[in-house]
Amino acid sequence: MELLRYAAAAPFSDKGELMKKKILLLVSHVLVAAVAALTGVLCCWSAMRADQTKLEELWAIVDERFIGEADPDLVANAMVEALGDQWSHYMTAEQYSAYRDTMSNSYVGVGMTVQARSDGQGLDVLAVTAGGGAEEAGILAGDQIVAVDGSSIVDMDVNDATARVRGEEGTTVELTVVRQEQTLTFRVERRRIETIVASAQMLEGGVALITIENFDDRCAQETIACIQQMLDQGAKALIFDVRGNPGGYKRELVELLDYLLPEGPLFRTEDYQGNVTVDESDADHLDIPMAVLMDLQSYSAAEFFAAALDEYDAAITVGEKTYGKGYLQNTFQLSDGSAVTLSVGKYFTPNGVSLAGVGLEPDVPVEVDDATAAAIAAGTLDPMEDPQVLAALEALGYGVAG
């Protein structure tokens, strides 16, 4: 195109007329050839891809003709990100495998919690999981891991070090630890370990505190078991802690709410086609004073758990406003083992209220400072020193005298 403009604009003398004609002829041939070649490629490609969608056709062109390396995972991730939905995301096959472990509340590992040492000298063992390979082998909290399979992990990045410890179920790993100036070596089996979903403890005055970590697999089963255990011990009231709870499966939420609440709607779902489903509770329910602790890190099922109890006047909500997630997602596995989690509907409280973008306001607002919030999240704060627990006890009529 630049050549055409230049040829048309260039001044020519009579003596240069022949040269002008040669140039114009050359330009004409070049343009015809270029247009013919371009049109031929497009028509041919279009005919070859007539049965494909635009995105399939585009990827076929990129895959075959792009001069660089096109990573399908990166392209797929960019496609999902382009939807502009913070809840929809793409996962590689490896990420999806880890995601399934998370949702099943289990993982394959040696059964210990570690952190990098500040001096770079390996990993500190913070806790050992009951029933795990580390416990059986004899590793103790406080041990310092300095080598994995005979190779030093001193001054190694924590992610690289823990990656060496991980492996397939049923295999073993050799861990070298320092314990009170002694160097010991343990052969540890990697096993599938189930994480605790719900736990309970009795507070002063006969009030049970039940902490729900998430609403993934076994949530309802473990939470109901905790409730029954506390009732058997004489609990007079219940406090549910869903602070920092990321949510989980609807089926777990509905099963737990059905156990707690009387007959009526529990949860409303509207899918991508506008179809509305209402999950109902039967008449059996738990008749006992209850409270729910929540905060900004209470998402999804955790919010709707608190909201349902609140709308039935079955519990007092205490703490901070929840996040406000009101869309449901389905996860679709792709043929290569990767997967996409996609928002496919909306959900609502029993009364038909959406929490999307607004969250649930507590009946009893209690804010905590950053240090207290961090201690709550880490599980290191004594419940009787937790301002939100104390406020819940007060709201239930079991306040502790100062």
Topology:
Elements: H1 2-9, H2 17-48, H3 54-65, H4 72-81, E1 89-91, H5 93-103, E2 106-109, E3 112-116, E4 123-128, H6 133-137, E5 144-148, E6 151-152, H7 158-165, E7 172-179, E8 182-189, E9 191-194, E10 198-202, E11 207-212, H8 219-232, E12 237-241, H9 250-260, E13 264-271, E14 276-281, E15 290-294, H10 300-311, E16 315-319, E17 327-333, E18 339-348, E19 364-365, H11 370-378, H12 387-396
Parallel strand pairs: 11-12, 12-15, 15-16, 16-19
Antiparallel strand pairs: 1-18, 2-9, 3-4, 4-5, 5-6, 5-7, 7-8, 10-11, 13-14, 13-18, 17-18
Helix pairs in contact: 8-9, 9-10
Q: Write down the CATH class of the largest domain.
A: Alpha Beta
Number of domains: 3
Task: Give the overall shape, derived from the CA principal axes.
Answer: flat
In which range does the helix fraction lie? 25-40%
Q: What is the residue-averaged pLDDT?
A: 87
Structure, explained:
It contains twelve helices and 19 strands. By secondary structure, it is of the alpha+beta class. The chain has three domains: 69 residues, no CATH class; 89 residues, PDZ domain (Pdz3 Domain, Roll), CATH 2.30.42; 199 residues, 2-enoyl-CoA Hydratase, Chain A, domain 1, CATH 3.90.226. Strands 3, 4, 5, 6, 7 and 8 form a six-stranded antiparallel sheet that branches. Strands 10-11-12-15-16-19 form a six-stranded mixed sheet, with helices on both faces. Strands 1, 13, 14, 17 and 18 form a five-stranded antiparallel sheet that branches. α8 runs parallel beside α9. The longest helix is centred in the N-terminal third of the chain and has 32 residues. The chain is flat. The N terminus is likely disordered.
